[in-house]
């Protein structure tokens, strides 16, 4: 994804910090369209309780964070959008394949 979007965005070496954060967030949002990235985010967060964020965070956001591992419930709430996205993609693929199957006239 980084190779596909790089020609359309400015060089990250010559942009400000805020633009760099927006650049990384754009790449992460585009990566999250991929089921493999959603699965990786979800499993990483659930299996490693020390993960506090799934995207870039600034030092101002880290100041108030308590350096303790997250509970399973908090980790699950953090990856709920990824789990919902994977489930929705699975249901769309199943519905599409069922529709295609029912449209075909299969006779033996």
List strands and helices in order, with pairings.
Blueprint: H1 2-5, H2 17-31, H3 35-47, H4 59-62, H5 72-78, H6 80-103
Helix pairs in contact: 3-6
Could you characterize the architecture of this molecule?
The chain has 108 residues and is mainly alpha-helical. Helices cover 62% and strands 0% of the residues. It contains 6 helices and no strands. Helix 3 runs antiparallel to helix 6. The longest helix has 24 residues. It is flat. It starts with a helix and ends in a 5-residue tail after the last helix.
Oligomeric state of shown chains: single chain
Structural class: mainly alpha
Helical fraction: 55-70%
Average pLDDT over all residues: 79
**Main sheet record:** none
Tell me how many strands there are: 0
The radius of gyration is 19 Å
Strand residue content: under 5%
